[in-house]
Amino acid sequence: MDLTTDFFTLFQLPRLFRLDLSALEARYLEIQGEVHPDRFVQADERARRQAAQWAARVNEGCLTLKKPLERAKYLLFLAGHDLEAERNTVMEPAFLIEQMEWREAAEEARNGRDHHALERLHHRLHQDLAGRYRALAALLDDQRDWPAAAHETRRLMFLEKLRLEIDDALAALEDEGIY
Amino acid sequence: MALFQISEPNASAAPHQHRRAVGIDLGTTHTLVATVKSGMALVLNDAQGHPLLPSVVRYQPDGQTEVGYAAQNWLASDPKNTVLSVKRFMGRGRKDIAHVESLPYDFVEGAGMVRVRTRAGVKSPVEISAEILKVARARAEAHLGGELVGAVITVPAYFDDAQRQATKDAARLAGLNVLRLLNEPTAAAIAYGLENAAEGIYAVYDLGGGTFDISILKLARGVFEVLATGGDSALGGDDFDQRIFCWVLEQAELPPLSPEDARLIMTRAREAKEFLTHHAEAPITVRLANNRTIDLTLDAHTFAEITRNLVARTLQGVKKALRDARLAKADVKGVVMVGGSTRMPQVQQAVADFFQSAPLNNLDPDKVVALGAATQANLLVGNKTGGDDWLLLDVIPLSLGLETMGGLTEKLIPRNATIPAARAQEFTTFRDGQTAMAIHVVQGERELVADCRSLARFELRGIPPMVAGAARIRVTFQVDADGLLAVSAREQTTGVAAAITVKPSYGLSDDEIAGMLKDSVSHARDDAQRRALKEAQVEAQRLIEATQAALKEDAHLLDKAEIARIEAAIAKLQTQVLGDNRRHLTLAMDDLAFETQAFAHRRMDQSVKRALAGRTVEEVNAIAERAGEERREEKTNEGSAA
Fold it and tell me: What are the CA-CA distances from residue A62 to residues A39, B458, B628, B633 (Å)?
């Protein structure tokens, strides 16, 4: 086991999208308890640096496996489909049109300071994402259909970005409420 | 040699000896130093019994420097040479400093941060802070009866890289071995959590003299985990004083003031603020240099009004931190109040209204940070008492990224990432034959580079000419447990090793620190040399003991030849420790480190495996199968639970 060991092996978890998050958390704390730089404050420079590298790797692993989109991307990467390295991702027109509609609705609600409309969008998106992640789990864990899973993951990358934007818009409205 | 203390951290050298370690809360207004004695954390008082050391430094006409109450007495009469709230200038340029026009100092622009011209010369905030830390160190050494093994220095959680680096430099300049930079709210959480055996989600609201932090933590048995942090490193009690100051100027219709008068009114403003903590109104009387006397009365209601938006700004930070932690305020079990400024009734009220519950005030808000830092220092040096042990997981407050095309930022490490953190990303050239690439490191949340803080610029040279887009330049960010960043870059395709590691430009190099140490009055020239030798000897001794302990424990990981080589290297080093040639000693240490590299690696491997011990491949597979049916629903839903 070294710094290049894959994260599933590192945390001794099965290489699956449907992940036991509590097991991940427990393993994470166990390993971090051993390698964290706080355990090596009295050691020499090289030991301290090595501890920092290990702890950083363990942190990165936990973060990657914890978030479903990152986990999906990582599973695909291990299967030889590196979505991060892709330069041009051509999406089908219907999806793009749907995206534009989502965005327009979000922008309209934001400009109109319409908190409720934003909340409704958020809820709809939440439902949509939940269904897509269920489908993605089947593609990754049951069918092992990497191309189809990669395609669905690309869509999810768009949608998660949209969700972030709606979150930000909601936050901005909330902050305005203070003053 | 590396990682020899895996199974028993820090227990290699003299296990039964108590190591002298302290926590120092280097505050904007006050500094405190604390330690753990017989299992109890306590703040160390000065000879007169004062726990607080005012963070005030005065450069006297006779060339001496005074710190604390003695210096404080000169604030109004010698304002240019008496520096207060220097923490606000750490790692900051002149333009970053709030109300700079009302400060009495002669500021000088300098590399990375502003400097103050005093009668003792131009002083950087690092040097001024070091004066405070020297006094704290002397107090600690007097109490503990000898040189310190090290200190945990606290910083506001919202301090950026420049401010952290400056703080660490100041501590080193004061001759302190920095065990860790610890975030102030995290230190408070340790003190509170251990004292009250608290478990669950807690918020720490820390309003100090010049900084505001909010941290959301998950406390569990043996783990302190920061989920999110936020704040404002230029918002604190000083700003409340400033509001009263402006109110006085307005009410009394005063013309522009001399530095002495301004300082005097500022002092009266602060006194009025403190008075209002326990009274409904505060009288403000000031006799100016021209003998004009100002008599005003500030009531609590007016005070709350003129500071309303300062309090609102803190609550905005609280909301943001909660959002980042993906929590609602109802999830928060308690709010720990830290920092002297939380004594203000309007602050208490606002926090109570926001969380719909009374804040926790059962620890002294001035002392809790220092006590927590002392407790952590005690743990870090290995003075364990009663098997007390915990893991502390903290985060970085601000995103770290790079400038990309068009002045945009590309974030490599997001805010609230658990530290240590590392992240690498590949970039490419955009022109044919491009042989150099400028790398600009920034910190902040905004999309435009211009709105973020610039940490460092450097250039990667010697890229072999290629067509645009063919070069693969890998930029690596590494944030250590102190929250400090190191960046390196390397061109990947050609094997041409063009790598560079930068320390952001405001940081002092080791040579500069050594130079300042040498220049300082208390250190004669060869003192620095002797000190370096002594430090190397201590380090070598530690290395020998750690290696021997590791051999005793894990010799089974080595073959006979390897053991023989390591033992030979130990013997060589033992000879050098007794000598006085620092260079030979360092080389012998390197040799031993080289011989034990593979050993260290195997031990780390063993330790990681041990952490996961008892889990067989079959068990892991069984988990995989179970994961199928029963958890299908909830585990996929979790993906969208925002």
Answer: 20, 31, 21, 22
